[in-house]
Amino acid sequence: MAHPLKIGLILNEPPIAEKSAAARSYEATTRVIARELENKAGSTDNIEFPAFWMNSSDINADEKLCQAKFPSLASRFHLFDIHTPRRFFEKINNRLQPMAFHASPAMRAAVKKALDSQLVDLLHLEHAWMVYALPRSFNPDRVLLSLHFLLSTDFTAAPPARSFREIVTRQRLIRAELRLIRRCTHFRVLSDDMAETLKKLHPSAKIHVVPLAIDASAYEFRPRPATHNLQAPVLSVIGSMNWPPTHSAANRMLTLLWPSIYKAMPHARLQVVGRQARQFFGEYHGRDNIEIHGNVPRIEPYFHGSSLLVYAPSAGSGMKVKVQEAMLMGLPVITNRSGIEGLNADHDRHCLIAETDNEFISQTINLLNNPSLAQTISTKARALVESQCDPQMIYHKTLDIYQNMAR
């Protein structure tokens, strides 16, 4: 039997679904790893995962959750504290190396020791900032960097900078991301669009396109009945409003799309829901049947209580998790090509696709007046996400990347 290929995983946060969209994907994939290792007595397809290094904002609580979720992997998990730079030298270092605090000295030492002792053969990093965890001198052929987004794309959707300092900060982050990317050779991205952009930034990159895993079983599917909220439809924009693509989608809905939709359907209601929604859009709350809900304890009731998700970002890289989640929960989606990036979705089958403001307005009104189409779309969209984002399938595609790198 050939020597098993040993993979070390470096995560920007623990695989705890409650933490973030990325963490939900990490948890789904880690569950597959745990199940495969248990079924094959410690190895899967002659691949082992001896170590998981991850950032944590609360090590004690996160360790308990990880042990409860993954008891068979608990001894392989190594959590490291992450903190905002506060001391003078830390702030200076953060200006020279933006986001370097994502990889603590202890994490960097642990990763170096694992490489030196041959505990691992290859490293799989989730998120560009985790390149800081690598030793100063490393073999890029032994590293796979997984990118969920690209700041150079996402910042084009950001609102105008409010100060010169904000302009400088954005440019510093973009340059830092590019420097870290160019230190690596092998990449996993979520879409063909990301692959095309990355190839322009890093022409010698070896790029693999693998969608973002999502556990469909964690989402209750409620197909829309043929008369769902026909008399009082609820339109929603859902997501973190501090993320430029979602911020741009909410702003476009509030300022350009909703006035015309509301005029045509005065019985309709709009809700903008998500992190920092009140901070950015609180002034709209109470106007023209608009509700703004920020930092809600649970987001699922807002999905289930909606008739339609309208997501119209001006730009954005990677897969839009709230679109995936809406489809899994049976909520019909109207979006643009950026909104369904990474999904092979068809117009009028899995969602409605619009680009111009007039297209968004007319298609929204038409769908709200055609509940049978909404019902069909919601059912087919769920099947689409289940088939394209299945964690087991994503896991085996990633194993193929490891094996290709090892060759």
* Spatial separation of the terminal alpha carbons: 16 Å
Helix content: 40-55%
β-strand number: 13
Contiguous runs where pLDDT drops below 50 for at least 5 residues: none
Q: How much of the sequence is in beta strands?
A: 15-25%
Written as H for each helix and E for each strand, in order along the chain, the element string is: EHEHEHHEEHHEHEEHEHEHEHEEHHH
Q: Mean pLDDT, as a whole number?
A: 92
How many individual helices?
14
Strand order of the largest sheet: 3-2-1-4-5-6-7
User: Could you describe the largest sheet, including whether it forms a barrel?
Assistant: 7 strands, parallel
Radius of gyration, in Å, reads: 22 Å
Structural class: alpha/beta
Based on Cα principal axes, name the global outline. Answer: globular
Q: What does this 3D model show about the protein?
A:
By secondary structure, the protein is an alpha/beta fold. 41% of the residues lie in helices and 16% in strands. It contains 14 helices and 13 strands. The chain has helices at residues 21-39, 59-69, 88-96, 105-116, 151-154, 164-181, 192-201, 244-264, 277-281, 300-304, 321-328, 357-368, 371-388, 391-406, and strands spanning 5-11, 47-56, 77-81, 122-126, 143-146, 186-189, 206-209, 234-238, 269-274, 290-294, 308-311, 333-335, 352-353. It has a seven-stranded parallel sheet with strand order 3-2-1-4-5-6-7, with helices on both faces. Strands 10-9-8-11-12-13 form a six-stranded parallel sheet, sandwiched between helices. Strand 8 (234-238), helix 8 and strand 9 form a beta-alpha-beta unit. Helix 1 (21-39) crosses helix 14 and helix 8 (244-264) crosses helix 12 (357-368). It is globular and about 65 Å long. It starts with a strand and ends with a helix. The relative contact order is 0.11. The model has no long low-confidence stretch (mean pLDDT 92).
